[in-house]
Amino acid sequence: MPHNTATTSTGPVWDWAAGHGPVTGALSATTGALALATTGAATGMPAGWALAAGAAGAIGHTVTSIRERLAARTITMRAASWLLGAGWTTWAITTGPFTWAAIGSLATLGVGMGAAARSTMFYEEARELEAIAAAERQVARELSAGRRAIAAEWVDRVQRVCGLTIRVLAVEMWPTGTGFTIDAELPAGGATYERIARESARLSADARLPHGCTASASPGIDQGRVLIDVTTVNVLIGMVEYPTDYSPLSLLTGIPWGLRTDGREVLAYLREQCALVVGPTGSGKTNMVHTILAGFARTTDVLTWVIDLNAGSAGLPWVRPALAGDGQGMRPGVDWLASTHEEAALMLDAAVRIAKHRKMAYQDLMSKANTDLLPVSAQIPQIEIVIDEGAEILASSDQAMRKLAAKILEVIRIARAMGIRTVLTALGATGSVLGNLMIRREAKVRVALTGGETEGMDLGKQFPGSRGLRVDQAPYKGSGFMGTPESSAALFKSWRIKPHQIRDIVAATADRHPALDSISAKAAGPDYARRWDSARIDWMHEHTPDVDAPAEPPPSGRTGGLNLSALRGTEPSAESEADRMAREFREQIDAQFATAPEPTSTQPPAGQPPTGSGLNLSALREEDSAARTAALALLLAAGPEGTGASAIARALADEHGTSRQTVVGWLKTWTDDGTAVRIGTGTKARYVHHRHAPRAD
Which pLDDT score, from 0 to 100, does residue 590 have? Predict the structure, then answer.
């Protein structure tokens, strides 16, 4: 038969490794006794030997059963089976095993042994189950005793501190081992949980809880019940890394923003709510913004727009991996980034147009879904506008800021149902920040990162109705309080997210970001379609220093040798590299989005010196002088607002082919000789002609 031919078997399948049951045990014992009696009778074996063997078996099984802690009836049954079998064998050897009397008595003996074995087996199983149940009851009694002690302790404590006599219904120990929750019934007479909540600090002190641990009260299952969460281990002091699980999220199921003191993730539900994140310098607010952007990047139904007038620093880490080409075809982690008033105004105007157009265009869809809220999905994503220090924009008295604030408030006011919400940050929880009724009404998801700072941190204003919240309860970086409509304000810990992890998240979620639906894209217009144009993202390159440029040009503006780069018609290597990166980035974006095509490349710079057998430096000097004069005219025309090196270089590129590096040298020389005045530092530096420079009082 071939080795791969399947074979079938019939009849019972025997498990020779299995132990004997009541039936097989009795059958084995009776057949063994019959075989021994037959052999003994045929060979003339002394009958006493069988009796001695039976007695030895009975003694051995008795010892084994006692060691296994079996019941007395089981031990008796086993010993009796050995002795009865030995007695029958002795009798059968003497009188003959094949008489009707011998066979009948052996069969009766086998049936009795099987029945007794089955009965004792059931008894042993019941005994074992009872032992397990008894052990569980003992553990429950011990745990219940501990819970009863906790309940009695906190009944006395609440009576002593709050003047209320509560009745504890349950004590739930947290799986993390960091505390417990008391479910209690309030006394009759109209007592509310708030009476306990406002005494949180005194209860924590009375319980001698460690620093960073609190006893906070919240509403129970009905208005006559209270839940008291008691934290016994300080989980706020350490740094908690952002999870490495970048699995997809949905706006509709909540986005995790950090951890509660009991180890549970606290979720932000932002379909209809705006959010307000407050944190002074050094509290971890910027890191919290990156945590929020990470959550949005992981969702499949959210497009993230970022406004940061501080050089776009909040959104740059989420754009630069794609801009630098870290991955082929990688899309940025945010869909639009604005770092100036002008770009922010374009973004907010586009958001208003989208909201108004969605209200008209999606009437049929909302009617079919029987809802007045736009059904958000991967096909029609929600737009989340994260505005760093946006609350300060709303409270500013500056004219430009006030115009921007009006646009922000319009988006908040009209766009809730159409799926456009905002996340604003602020440096403090003050009356000027929280004085706007629109913010208080719409921003129901609120975070206060305290960092131990007390100035400008009025938790009562940010979390109205919450009692017992104190800044000194969360003195650690990244710790604070978070409250949502679904979860009352309580301590939480924000995750720590680092630049390398941001790049990992951008790469892991690049293929997950939805595209703006065609109806909304049409309403947004060219301001949205051309958001990645070279002229609008050129400022992003300025964050990488030109390593090939000299730290400070010589005062004369001349080097030790001839610089013939103008004759060779080449640009500095760093500038060419930046142009290449921008071009590749735009090509990647155009492949993913329906963006408008880029304008055609500029013509070669006019006045390019012809190549010849000798050097004609007069043409170069004339061209340099003309470009320098044109640059100075642009500086003068910029007025009090001033301008920068990049803007001047772009204006001169078509006619003179002047590089940014050359303009930087001119501006440095003009600053040294008083022709120009430099205002600001770093990427926000501006140059103003001395005629328009502010006068010192």
Answer: 57
Q: Could you tell me if 583 and 525 lie in one domain?
A: no
- Global pTM reads 0.60
Residue type, 252: L
Structural domain contains residue 145:
no
Please give the Cα distance from 120 to 110 (Å, whole number). 15
What band does 264 get if pLDDT is binned at 50, 70 and 90? Answer: confident
Average pLDDT of the chain, as a whole number: 79
Q: Which of 300-304, 641-645, 679-683 has the lowest mean pLDDT?
A: 679-683
On whether both 490 and 627 belong to a single domain, the answer is: no
User: Strand pairing of 490-493 and 255-260?
Assistant: antiparallel
Residue 433 resides in a domain: yes
> HSE-up of 571 (CA within 13 Å, CB side)?
19
Q: Examine the pLDDT at 579 and tell me if it is beyond 70.
A: no
Give the residue among 564, 578, 490 at the shortest CA–CA distance from 235.
490
Instruction: Tell whether the model's pLDDT for residue 360 goes beyond 50.
Output: yes
Element (H, E) at 182: strand 179-185
Please indicate, yes or no, if residue 115 is contained in any of the structural domains: yes
Q: Which domain holds residue 447?
A: 251-529
What pLDDT, in 10s, does the model give residues 210-245?
877 888 888 899 999 999 999 898 888 878 899 998
Shared domain for 400 and 280, answered yes or no, is yes
**Residue 23, amino acid:** V
Specify the 3-state DSSP secondary structure of 201: helix
State which amino acid sits at residue 388: D
Is residue 285 within 8 Å of 449, Cβ to Cβ?
Answer: yes
Give me the DSSP letters along 404-442.
HHHHHHHHHHH-TTTTEEEEEEES-B-HHHHT-HHHHHH
Residue 179 DSSP class? E
Count: domains in the chain: 4
pLDDT in tens, 78-90: 777 777 777 788 8
Residue 604: per-residue pLDDT: 41
Domain match, 445 and 518 both: yes
Counts of helices then strands in the chain (DSSP H, E): 24, 16
Q: For residue 543, what pLDDT is reported? A: 53
Please report, to the nearest 10 degrees, the dihedral formed by the alpha carbons of residues 160, 488, 246, 354 taken in order. Answer: -170
575 and 624, same domain (yes or no)? yes
Domain-embedded: residue 391: yes
